[in-house]
Amino acid sequence: MKLFDVYPINDITIERAAGSYVWDNNGVQYLDMYGGHAVISIGHTHPHWVRRIEEQLNKIAFYSNSVRIPIQQQLAEKLAQVSGKTDYQLFLVNSGAEANENALKLASFHNGRKKIVAFSKAFHGRTSLAVAVTDNPKIVAPVNETDNVIFLPFNDAAALKACFQQQGEDIAAVIIEGIQGVGGIVEADASFLTLIRELCDTHGAVYIADSVQCGYGRTGQFFAHDIAGVNADIYTMAKGMGNGFPIGGILIAPHILPKHGMLGTTFGGNHLACAAALAVLEVIEKENLISMAKQRGMYIKSQLQKIAGIENIRGRGLMIGFDPPESLKELRKVLLNDFNVFTGEAKPNVVRLLPSLALSRKQADEFLEALQEAIAAVQEKEEE
Ligand SMILES: Cc1ncc(COP(=O)(O)O)c(C=O)c1O
Fold first, then answer.
1. Among 23, 280, 307, 367, which is most buried by a count of CB atoms within 10 Å?
2. Looking at ligand 1, which residue's alpha carbon is closest to its atom 13?
3. 342: buried, middle or exposed (CB in 10 Å: 19+, 13-18, 0-12)?
4. Are strands 21-24 and 14-18 parallel, antiparallel or unpaired?
5. Percent with pLDDT over 70 in the chain
6. Domain boundaries in the chain?
């Protein structure tokens, strides 16, 4: 049987991983500045994470949400403590798209409305509603097309105010990434997030903070949206939550009330996924990874500023982007193939850095050195 060929892949087979390194089937070591798409939060195969999953596996891996699953409550308590959202409620799912899908449905259940405000270049996932609020027509199937979504320019306060003025009473929710990832590392202004909060309060709409990529401590705060000093009504989470074990979740403000049967999932909140997610939070706490991410990110950004030839260095914590000019468009490829460094990309030619929050200073320096050498190598090739 053939695999359904939807991924443009690198011709590399990863066999083993530890911390911020991965090794291919020829034993070649790579520095992972990509974290398998922002997923690796505490480091590949972290011993505490492995141990906790193994222990859970030997007890019970799965039972459905028809019985008490105390490890879900343990996870909720730890999340409250580490995120600071102590009075929020937790609903567990399996992926980022599923988290956003449920958040949007919940908002609509909550206020009985249909319109969703989303922003240019947003990416929220590939399930029906999540993809409908994603600003990429190429991945929206005809069946997902809807008049219920209003796309506005990102960080445009006037457009948002005008939209609420015209149809505020129909708006179920506003969904926004704290820092757009797929969109190319673009930060939401704190003042824009505050305005969303105000307009949602005034008009009875739900503020959904998509924290699937920018959340879980990556930016030096538990949620990137926290920079505005206001709370969202729903936070969606996934990637870093399980450090590679599939799990997602939504944090729901106390005024949004549950009803039996309103949401549901077979696999969401299973014992094994909760064990992985608990291990992640325990390590984040013990190793102080949120403040490490902040410090390490500031260091990398300050060093990137000194490197000639790259532009628009931006982002917070370990969610960093920069633009190589047209003459350096081969940079990511050269970094991977000649310097054994994985980085992420965003269209058209943004380099995205999304390493583990446990990236060491030495590994950061290793990256910066490789980057400078790769730039020189590309420039040399260009001159030939
Ligand atoms: C901001 C954001 N939201 C949602 C998603 C979808 O997550 P998943 O691929 O786990 O469905 C992604 C994935 O890249 C994302 O970056």
1. 280
2. 125
3. buried
4. antiparallel
5. 100
6. 14-42+288-383, 47-286
